[in-house]
Amino acid sequence: MNQLTGITFKLGRHFFKKQSVLLYILLTFFSLQALSVCLAETPGDQTIISETVIIESKGDAGIVIAERRYAVLKSTVILDISGKTIPLCDLKVPSEALVEYRLVKDQGPVCVRIENKRLLQGATSLVIADDDG
Known about the structure:
There is one protein chain. With 133 residues, the protein is an alpha+beta fold. The chain has one helix at 2-40, and strands at residues 48-58, 62-65, 68-79, 93-103, 109-124. It contains one helix and five strands, in the order αβββββ. The chain has a five-stranded mixed β-barrel. A hairpin with a 5-residue loop joins β4 and β5. The protein starts with a helix and ends in a 9-residue tail after the last strand.
């Protein structure tokens, strides 16, 4: 009887070790999942959206697409129809372009890349929009 109790005790202790390891693994897994969800919802989210659009006009620090202002930073890559890098002042509008941008919380969209595809009638590199900033 004493020998049977000793075997049961050893088996029980071994069983609880396995359960503890499994419990730690599950807790770690779910903690990492919760952490990844929290990080995905932070304002610094860097998801880039890419769309072919009509750029209606431009100003000193942005472009206008569908009556919405998109900020253009010094780091924004702007390509003309031939694929050459140009500054914002040389971008001809109105035009059809592939625009990659980020949505920034509490601000408007910020352009990462603008690739001019086709000039539309009356396209010019002059600033043809009032720009607040």
